[in-house]
Predict the structure.
Amino acid sequence: MKPVQILVGAMLVLSISPAAAAGARIGLAIAPAIVHGGDLSSDLEHPMQEAIAEMLSWEASLIQSVRVIDPVLLNTNLEKSGWSGRTDLTETEIEDGRNASRQLDADAVLLTRFVHSAGMVDWQVALAYRRETKDLSQRLSGRSREDDFILQIRQHALTYLDTIGVKVPPAAYQIVNSRGNVGWEALREYAMGIRDQEAGKNEEALRHLNEALRRAPFLPSLQVRLKKLEMELQSSR
């Protein structure tokens, strides 16, 4: 098997409006992750994009000062520019994400890309935002073990939200710090569950999602997806 090559980059693009600065809820859109290359099989690329965006969307929705944009509507807008075929996170992707999210009245859009190789992940986190008429940005990168990179992204995303005026409660930091690790195998099981569910293979999906939950029991998005699938299976029997 070839070495995995997945580079992780998170880019948070914000336009700070007077209402947001005054303490109104900030509309946050989270785009499907850009995941291509390495030894991640092509049938898992789209499900992995969904899994990561779904996970981050649910977590962001727990912050009262954040209003998460409907990911289905966002994905529809992004696909008009061929988002699922993107392989890089450049200024082009940032602008496309900004434009797609603004059509949905979002103040911010979070975009992710990652590259994983031989059990390690090179990751980047950047905050790009517009204050009045000036574009500003903050960037951070690092290298982590495959089981630790999600924790790094989650921690820095909270810090960036805090610096632009989002009232992130201390409990959010505590939860991320104590339960923020999501192992690579848990992510793969999560993605395989989504893949099989979308293919109508619900029993196989149930097995993968249960295994993902066993490995990462503190993910609200995973818990909700699994519960909905269980209810669907019960109603069909």
In short: The mean pLDDT is 84. Strands lie at 8-16, 26-30, 66-68, 108-117, 120-131, 134-145. Residues 182-230 form one domain.
